[in-house]
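Quick one, T. Sequence first:
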Amino acid sequence: MGTSSSNMTLYKSGSKYYWKLIAYNGSGKSTQGPVWSFTTKEVAAPSTPSSPSPSNGATNVAVSGTLSWSCSPNDGGTTLSYDL
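Structure tokens:
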């Protein structure tokens, strides 16, 4: 009996998936396995953005500059993206 594997990619957080295998030999004969399922890990939402710069309500801010803030992914390192 051999062990085989296939890499999982592009699965959605906190979702249940069902899968089934059909094994074929060199003569084209096949055997179907049962339906299996798994649920992916729920990934936490990012922390609430905080510490804005310029600060909330700031006045006399230069007409050009940089906006900055703090925010953590809360899931062990996923890169965050933002809408401004």
